[in-house]
Automatic annotation (TrEMBL):
GO terms for cellular component: outer membrane-bounded periplasmic space. It comes from freshwater metagenome. GO terms for biological process: thiamine transport. One of its GO terms (molecular function) is thiamine binding. PROSITE patterns: PROKAR_LIPOPROTEIN. This is Unannotated protein. The keyword Disulfide bond does not apply. Keywords: Signal. The lineage of its organism: unclassified sequences, metagenomes, ecological metagenomes.
Amino acid sequence: MFSSVFKKIAVLSAASSLALLAACGSSQEQAGPAAVTLLTHDSFVVSEALVAQLKKETGITLKITTAGDAGAMLAGAVLAAGSPSADVMFGVDNTLLAKATNADVFSAYTSKNLDLVSPALKTDTGNGVVTPIDYGDVCINIDDAWFRKRNVAVPTSIDQLTQPAYKDLLVVQDPATSSPGLAFMLATQAKFGDQWLSYWKQLEANGVQVSGSWTDAYESAFSASGGTRPLVVSYATSPPAEIVYAANPKPKKPSTSVLTDGCYRQIEFAGVLRGTQNEGAAQQVVDWLLSPAVQADLPLSMFVFPARANTPLPEVFTKFATKVPNPLQLPATVVDANLKTWLNQWDEVMNR
């Protein structure tokens, strides 16, 4: 989830997505009854040791196939609904869930361990077809050193980002091409309601920069990475990632922090694909994704929080990953019904 994952492009090439899905090459005739193909986005990471452990404990050989970002992955799955080339899909999140359920992509199954998932994450399982696996929060990240050096107060609310004190300081991502960009746009819709476009007009007038991707925004425009903008849309888990990926000797604490106002929660799900001939083994893979070992692996493999309650977190997470007290969310059905209109309205306001 940490790179420009969340992984949803609003306008998708259905034909190319279908080609990617078909390239899985994992029909039951080819794979055999003990093989399960997991279709996922290209930011999915799981250790080989865990895959080997799955085979040792269940006899299942797991084949992992990626199909671009989550939006492209889902577009292919929609076209192949009922006759999938894979058995399980992971990576559909709460902004895409309604699209998946409307297309009847999944079979009816939730993990036998669903009761162990944190209650706030399982309020929507698409009427019993998906299981929450992880979550993360998209938030404004702050280059603390930049503000400290200039003796400028850091913002404490996204409302302040329209003020003259923060002119030309913010970089966001295009919501049509970037998952965190989309999440931030949805956060403004959730927070400001009918006034969300007015907020964006004020941001535009205050010099907000729009990048095409998380990589362009965080790694090029963000001042902590050598750019000129000390405020960037990223993740609540970006600060611990800064420590993990730093060269030795590693810093004792991150140089960045997180603005917890205006954060948007993203939840990633897994489900059994309707039409698989390997239903039982596919269900076992969904259960495996929610197992203690896989859940404990998620924070440092994908920089997300595990969905399973009381999963131990690595020290770098407990110290530096920000827990957002009141994350924003919109119902999946509302997003699905309005997203195209919202994106068009955003384009008009931002002169895109």
